[in-house]
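Annex B, item 7. Sequence and structure tokens for protein A, then protein B.
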Amino acid sequence: MTEHIKKKTILSGMQPTGSLHIGNLEGALKNWVDCQDDYWMYCCIVDWHSLTAEYTDTKGLKEKVFQMAVDFLAAGLDPEKCAIFVQSEVIEHAELHLIFSMLISVPTLTRMPTYQEKKDKLDSYGFLGYPVLQAADICLYNADFVPVGKDQEKHIWLAKDLAQRFNSTYKKVFQEPEALLREIPLILGADNRKMSKSYDNHIPIDFTEKQTEKRLKSFYTDPNKQRKGDPGNPDKCPIYLLHKIYSDNPEKEIAPPCRTGELGCVDCKLKLTERLNKSLAPIREKRQELLKDPNQVWDILATGRDRAKQRAGNVMDKVRSAMKLSYRKKK
């Protein structure tokens, strides 16, 4: 597919954590899949970003990148419609990060929400400059939009601000990206906290049906509903939140009998297990097909890298020209 067919460009990125869970699927991947028919997309596995917290332990990074790529493809990202690639294989990300780092002050970075949240645990320059690298990721492709939830809007603002600063300091090169805001469904894990691998409360996409059933059985439910017959409050139950995604009519089928006590938690979880497994079945089947031929996955990443490098190279040529950093005439 030629890029000029697409009117607008999207950049999306995700840190490689290995195989993904249903929170990733519902919170990001499904939206990316929906967008790929309407935009030219660059889907980046941002391995350099992962170094901010895991720079001392990189031995498993290659496998995490691979498993994430498998899940991208299994969830429906089409390499004919979007470039799927690894951040570190496009060196221009680092080059633009360096240039952008000259255009921003340290106090601005220390006010970023992610820095404020984690500054007591992470104190490297890499962590402080994380939003600048993120801005470089976006602007390197002259992305028009970045699909994010409301909590990430500040980072898109920074990318837009850096694009404006560069354009006003040198010459207009960059699009000023905008957040493509969407409502991300609330997905809680087994312990009623946000679903996350770090909490070990998640449901991986690559779980078997039996593993999914076992994990759902361990999920927190309304503490006041101890046994069938007790009235429950579905609005406080993470199982009901998942029913709202995977069941056709939970407001009538699940919520009322939960509130009256007619529907017990065990049966409620079994209904969800059946529906979740049914929803994940085609993704799991595609995963198994991809795992039979790992080289196919790496080839897709290589093709995505080449597409990304072409776009990134063109943008960086304009950056160097605008900054008068092109010292030699092209032959």
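Protein B:
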Amino acid sequence: MGSSIKIHANPELLVWAREESGLTPEELAVKLHIPVDRFRQWENTGKNIPLGILKQVANFYKRQLAVFCLPTPPPKIKKPGDFRNLAKDQSGLSGEALLIVRRTSKYLKLAFELEGEEYWKTKYNWLNEADNLLTKKKNITDAEITGWLRNALGISLDQQKKFRSYEAAFKAWRNAVEKKLGIFVFQFPMPEGEMDGFSYAFEPPYAIVLNNTNNLPQRKIFTLFHELGHILKHQSGICFTDLYRENQLEMEYQCNDFAGKFLVPDNNVYPVDSVEELTKLSQTYKVSREVYLRRSFENELISKREFFNHLKTIREIAKTPKAKKEGFAVSPSVTSKSQRGEAFYNLVVDAAYNNRIDFSTATDVLNLKINSILNA
């Protein structure tokens, strides 16, 4: 039996893989139903680890078993800065979220290898234009910056108003960011309340990653542009985009301000006399009621008292349970494309068909069986 076979592993790799997973020795010991001292001994010596246990450890870390026998640990994955401003005892990321960070890094490395350095250098020429504008304007929230970005994305305010739904608006904005700016937009389920998303912009290509666990499309639209604000500032960061979070970092406030002003420019902000009117205006611009309410308050079109009264009402409405929609089966390929975005999905499928990568790599990064890719 596997449990009777003892394995010698590289102790440095054991520690490296655990730290990259975000788990502590105590948490691993609980999962493995063993004393923590025994697990610490394995990490110190790497000797006499039951094969069955090591397989479980590899599964918890989402790693291949062979990784524990490498001569030296690979470089640690670059992690975005944490802009959430949490209490010290709430800091850090869950194993699920760290896995998404690792996945993002892996996808971007593959995209870089497939297209090459010169392609991505050319694709990001727009960022040089943005840098030149920011050198003069100093602030991403300036109307000239948001206007320049709207032109770069090719979606006018009139077109924005004509989106038939929030879902259609999110899809259009996402596709524009991917096609016009070369920024991949991924969306994966992550623990609810841990983050709204993060920007990953260490070197081209860049990515914006959204948490799609119970997040409405209007919230994802706002988060998309919040994270784009960070990329304009050359920042990689993990974020909450709650407009009214206490003790919000200045950089988070500025990216929220940028997203709000981009989606609802100053000359399109009107006073709101009722929640019904607020709902109508927010639906027109395909933003949340909180976003439009904040824009009205920022422009001094409503009083502080009106602002907080409306805010209390719409947050109570948001808490009201909604009828669940009838579920229906979604094909694995649709799920894969929804999570990874059309740009990355199509890049990988085309590379597999043109023998630039093997189908094993394609099935791994797209989380699909080979038949799903062959029928794509």
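Comment on protein B: The chain has three domains: 2-69, 95-263, 327-374.
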